[in-house]
Design goal:
Layout: E1 2-6, H1 10-19, E2 27-31, H2 34-44, E3 48-54, H3 62-70, E4 80-84, H4 89-98, E5 102-105, H5 110-164, H6 170-187, H7 192-202, H8 214-217, H9 225-232, H10 234-242, H11 248-259, H12 280-294, H13 306-316, H14 323-331, H15 333-340
Helix pairs in contact: 6-7, 6-12, 6-14, 6-15, 7-11, 10-11, 11-12
Length: 349
C-alpha cells in the first residue's frame, strides 16, 4: 500500500521516507507540490492507504490541501496525518473539521511514525476489505432477487395463460392494460420499481374470471342481470386466489383484482369504495382496463374508435375514474395510440 508524503521541503520528505522503511508493505510516494500531489490522487487515490501532510506550505497549506483531497473520488475515507510543529488547539480543530485523522509533531520520532502509519494502514485495509465484502454481498443479493423475480414472472405468465384458455382475447388485453398502467404510473411520478411491478401485477387483474362459466364469459350479446351478478364476482374471486401471498407482487395483484371495478364516486363493486380509499393501483388499472375494453372487439360488442373511448374517459373523470389517472393517461396519448395499434408481442416458448 502506498503512503503519500507531502512537504515543501525535500529533506523532510527524505527523512519521512526513511522512517517509513520499517513499515511492512509500505511504499512512500513523496511530493513537494500540493498541486502535483492532488493530481496524483486524482488518478491513483485508490492506491493510497495513508497520507502524511505538512501544515506549513506556500500557496496551499495542509488544511487547504486536505479539504481539496477529500473531494476527490476514492479519498473520502483514507486516513490523513497532519505533520506540524504547532500545538494550537484552534489549528488542530480546523484540521479535524477539514478531514484530518491524526497529528504528528515536528520534529517527528521515526518510531512513532512507524507505529501510527502501520496502525492506520491496517485500519484502512480493514475498511477496504469490508467495502469489498459489502459490494460482494450486494451483488449476491441482487442475483438472488433476480432469480426470485424471474420465478414470479413465470408464475404470473402461467396464471395468465390459464385464463387465456378461457378467453382468447385475454393475452392481448392484459398486455395492453399493463402498458397503459405503466404509462400512467410513470406520468404520476411513481417510483420506477413500482411502475414495473404494477405493469406485471396488472396482468392478473381478471384472474378471477377463471371461475366464470363459459356460457357467460363468451356469451354473444348483452348479459342478463343475474349473469352480471355472477361475472362481477370475479373481482372477489381473484382477490381470494391471490391474497395472503408472501410476494409483494402477488399482493399488489390481489389489490388490483379486487379494486379495479370500484368507482371514484363509490358506485362500483365489490366493496363500494370511493376516491382515495380505492388503492392507487386499482384506480390506475380501472382506466386502462375500461379503455382497452372499449377499443376492443368483444363477443357482445364491436370496438369503439379510440377517440370515442378517450371522450368517454374525459366525461367520466371524477365519477367513474380518478381524474388524476385520466389526466395521466391523456398526457401520454401519443404512446397510448402506439400501444392501441399493436397486439401483444409474441411470447417466448
Amino acid at each position: 500500500m502506498k503512503v503519500l508524503v507531502l512537504d515543501d521541503v525535500e529533506l523532510n520528505n527524505v527523512l519521512m521516507a526513511e522512517a517509513l522503511k520499517g513499515v511492512p508493505e509500505c511504499t512512500p510516494v513523496a511530493f513537494t507540490s500540493p498541486d502535483k500531489a492532488l493530481a496524483y490522487l486524482t488518478e491513483s487515490a485508490a492506491e493510497v492507504g495513508v497520507a502524511m501532510v505538512d501544515f506549513e506550505m506556500p500557496r496551499m497549506n495542509g488544511i487547504e490541501f486536505i479539504r481539496a483531497a477529500r473531494k476527490l473520488d476514492g479519498f473520502a475515507h483514507v486516513p490523513v496525518v497532519m505533520v506540524t510543529s504547532s500545538d494550537q488547539r484552534s489549528l488542530r480543530r480546523e484540521a479535524l473539521e477539514a478531514g484530518a485523522t491524526d497529528f504528528v509533531g515536528k520534529p517527528f520520532d521515526p518510531v512513532e511514525i512507524r507505529a501510527r502509519v502501520g496502525n492506520l494502514l491496517a485500519l484502512n485495509q480493514a475498511r477496504v476489505s469490508e467495502a469489498d465484502r459489502a459490494a460482494w454481498l450486494s451483488r449476491e443479493v441482487a442475483a438472488a432477487v433476480a432469480v426470485i423475480e424471474a420465478r414470479e414472472r413465470e408464475l404470473v405468465e402461467r396464471l395468465v395463460r390459464a385464463i387465456e384458455h378461457r378467453d382468447t382475447d385475454t393475452g392481448e388485453h392484459v398486455w395492453r392494460v399493463a402498458q397503459y398502467a405503466k404509462l400512467m404510473a410513470e406520468e404520476l411520478g411513481c417510483e420506477p420499481d413500482w411502475c414495473r411491478q404494477l405493469g406485471l401485477a396488472s396482468t392478473m387483474h381478471d384472474i378471477g374470471k377463471i371461475a366464470v362459466p363459459d356460457s357467460i364469459l363468451l356469451k354473444q350479446g348483452p348479459l342478463t342481470p343475474e349473469e352480471r351478478v355472477l361475472i362481477s364476482r370475479h373481482a372477489e374471486r381473484g382477490y381470494e386466489i391471490l391474497k395472503e401471498s408472501s410476494s409483494d407482487l402477488i399482493r399488489l395483484a390481489a389489490d388490483i383484482a379486487v379494486s379495479h371495478h370500484e368507482r371514484w364516486d363509490g358506485g362500483g363493486y365489490p366493496n363500494g369504495l370511493a376516491r382515495t380509499d380505492i388503492p392507487l393501483a386499482g384506480r390506475i388499472v380501472a382506466v386502462a382496463d375500461v379503455f382497452d375494453a372499449l377499443t376492443s372487439d368483444r363477443p357482445y360488442k364491436k370496438a369503439w374508435p379510440v377517440r370515442t373511448a378517450r371522450q368517454y374517459l374525459v366525461e367520466n373523470a371524477g365519477t367513474q375514474f380518478d381524474p388524476a389517472c385520466v389526466d395521466a393517461f391523456l398526457a401520454s396519448w401519443p404512446k397510448v395510440l402506439r400501444i392501441a395499434a399493436h397486439e401483444a408481442p409474441p411470447r417466448a416458448a
